[in-house]
Design a protein that fits this description.
The complex is a heterodimer of chains A (204) and B (183). Chain A has four helices and seven strands, in the order ββαβααββββα. Chain A has helices at residues 55-77, 98-105, 111-117, 196-199; strands spanning 10-20, 33-42, 85-92, 125-130, 137-143, 154-158, 168-176. In chain A, strands 1, 2, 3, 4, 5, 6 and 7 form a seven-stranded mixed beta sheet that branches. The N and C termini of chain A lie far apart (63 Å). Chain B has one domain (5-182): 60s Ribosomal Protein L30, Chain: A, CATH 3.30.1330.110. The chains are: A alpha+beta (204), B alpha+beta (183).
Chain lengths: 204, 183
């Protein structure tokens, strides 16, 4: 039996996983699996105005969300050690403020905990928007301990067919077990010097 | 068969209609994005060779995965074929409307009924609904349900998305009188 989340506000949890076996006709040298977990919850601040203090509910709700999404990603992707890149996102229903989504994902009560559970050190990159149910959202990911690792810049598109309702928020975390399928654009260590003056012919 | 990608979706419903569901409702989908075996061949009159080459293998790939993703006994099930814009809907139907495809899932789930299906043609990112019905009695009303699916970049024009769906229960908060009460 699927356990309850411990958070009565949760309506749905949607796990989405994508394995790329072939890209441009060739198998990736380092195959990666990407996954996202989207949790649909009632907006704790529905019906309140911009003078509402968001801190109490953020402190109550966000740590639970961090636990739910981290556990699903670890379970789905085969353990915390398998996870190399991560990101987060929120889609706020049309009756809420983007600030409500931000309160759930951009405070230590979510970000610090997801980073801790997924054993990362990088800042979590993110996307947020306000939208109707069924809007797809592209979640950016980067390396969990070395954010500038260019091979791991990638995205995961996620969507909940019937969420968020106007008074709901969809909170998302996503992760990948490896790089893009065929990364070949170098890295900071191999980059030539590039400035506008160099491109116009100056010596590097 | 050479799938380009395999996508797994697990949807859990914890509350519905503002009330917690009795047990968390679980529906899983696994989809494989494969090349259309008849792509670029013009109108192929006899589809048998392509069916023989692909249908059983896709069924064998998807069936254990969707059962594992559901993680609970299957009570309702369904299937889908979404054909990219260069193909015919008939190509998708050819792959899923054969016992060689469906029997992998039917046997593994100890099911007996025909798998309800959606077949359509569309661009990458097209939204489709997979219908599910009870696996041994297609008249069990509580188990009539659908799950909505979208793959961000499939099918390409020369591809077909083949999917299986499984549910561990009927609709969340199902409370319709059974068909027998109206007969």
């Amino acid at each position: 039996m699927t356990p309850r989340t411990g958070l009565p506000e949760v309506r749905k949890v949607v796990y989405l996983q994508e394995e790329v076996l072939l890209e441009a006709g060739a198998a990736p040298a380092v195959p990666a699996t990407r996954a996202s977990v989207a949790v649909v919850i009632r907006n704790p601040w529905h019906g309140t105005g911009p003078d509402q203090d968001l801190s109490a509910e953020a402190e109550r709700v966000a740590p639970q969300l961090a636990r739910i999404v981290s556990a699903r990603l670890i379970e789905g992707l085969g353990g915390v050690d398998a996870i190399e890149a991560f990101g987060k996102a929120a889609i706020v229903g049309t009756a809420g403020e983007i600030e409500h989504g931000s309160a759930l994902i951009h405070t230590p009560y979510f970000g610090n905990l997801v980073r801790e559970f997924l054993e990362g050190t990088s800042i979590l990159c993110f996307a947020d928007e306000r939208a109707d149910a069924g809007q797809s959202l592209t979640v950016p990911l980067w390396h969990k301990t070395a954010a500038a690792t260019r091979s791991h810049y990638q995205t995961m598109t996620t969507r909940v067919s019937d969420g968020p309702a106007p008074d709901e928020i969809v909170v998302v975390a996503a992760a990948s077990t490896g790089p893009r399928p065929h990364p070949r654009i170098g890295d900071r260590t191999t980059d030539p010097a590039v400035t506008s003056a160099i491109l116009e012919g100056a010596e590097a | 068969m050479n799938p380009r990608k395999i996508v797994t979706i697990v949807e859990e419903t914890h509350t519905e209609g503002g009330r917690p569901v009795e047990t968390v409702a679980r529906v899983a989908v696994v989809a494989a994005v494969i090349p259309n075996p008849w792509d670029g061949q013009g109108f192929v009159e006899d589809l048998t060779a392509g069916i023989d080459a692909v249908a059983s293998d896709v069924g064998a790939l998807l069936a254990p995965r969707v059962i594992e993703a559901l993680g609970e006994p299957v009570e309702a099930y369904g299937k889908a074929a979404i054909v990219g814009l260069n193909g015919e809907v008939e190509h998708g139907s050819a792959l899923i409307h054969t016992l060689k495809f469906g029997d992998h899932f039917r046997k593994a789930a100890e099911a007996t009924t025909l798998l309800p299906a959606v077949e359509k043609r569309g661009p990458a990112g097209v939204v489709f609904d997979i219908p599910l019905k009870h696996k041994t009695d297609a008249t069990v009303r509580s188990h009539h349900q659908t799950i909505e699916v979208r793959l961000a970049d499939a099918p390409h024009p020369g591809e077909i998305v083949i999917a299986l769906a499984a549910a561990a229960q009927g609709r969340p908060q199902q409370r319709l009188a059974p068909l027998s009460t109206e007969q």
